[in-house]
Amino acid sequence: MKRFYKEVIVKKPDDEGNGGRFRILLDGKPVRTPGGNFLAIPGRALAERIASEWRDQKDEIEAVSMPMLRMANIALDGISANRQAVVDAITRFGEHDLICYRAEQPLELAALQEQSWSPMLDWAAAAHGARLAAGAGLVHIPQPPEALIALRRSVEERDDFALAALHVMASVTGSLVLALALAEGELSPAQAFQMSRIDEDYQAGKWGIDAQAEARARVLAREIDMASVFIAASRH
User: Fold this and answer.
1) Closest Cα to residue 161, out of 65, 69, 85?
2) Contact at 8 Å (CB) between 61 and 1?
């Protein structure tokens, strides 16, 4: 699509009342989402980032270069209309959380998992009242119902913008515990991503790096970075 605007501004919530949210104006006209909703942003920092994405477009608008806008559209169009389904999907990562499934062999890998993952299970228990069970192998580990209820409560209490980011975090890491820790500042994006890739990094260290796998890892790392920026900016 050709760029069709010149000026991009952020409209404050107190300008004619925007429900306490910021809006992006292109040549004075408010931006709408693909679903027809106003692009109403809860935090000024996030609104400014999205405005910068619009300003940075050249002659052609490239959607792939606008990750903050894409996630905001998901929050406003997809999550607001399907909130419970999204909460269910995110909570399911806790039912099969990556960090609950440990290797038996080799012992070196098992030790790496124990060293990185067990403290995160302790954190989930202390911070969210969710004590998940862990075990060796890939057979499904039934989790205590009270732990899953506590995790679901932690997910449900977040707004649609936070859910959009949390879903990305959990999808990339395969872990609701790591996603929550990242969302709450307990882990950095790099730490959460590294913890989610202990197995892959161990195998790469033994057998060498696969170029395609490495390229995909860079894409996933970028996604988790953007989700972390998005959730933080939506609060300010």
Assistant:
1) 69
2) yes
17-63: per-residue pLDDT in tens? 556 899 999 999 999 999 999 999 999 999 999 999 999 999 999 99
CA distances (Å), 33 to each of 6, 74, 136, 187, in order? Answer: 19, 9, 45, 32
Helix, strand, coil shares of the chain, percent, nearest 5, are 60, 10, 30
- Please name the residue ranges forming H helices in 97-159: 107-128, 145-156
Place of tokens 């500042």: 185
d(CA 21, CA 229): 18
- Give the tokens for residue 139: 């057979």
Q: Can you list the domains of the chain with their CATH numbers?
A: 8-66 (3.30.2180.10), 83-233 (1.10.3580.10)
Single out the residue of 169, 72, 62, 181 nearest to residue 122, CA to CA. Answer: 181
Question: What tokens appear for 156 in the block?
Answer: 């449900």
* Assessment of whether the complete model's pTM goes beyond 0.90: yes
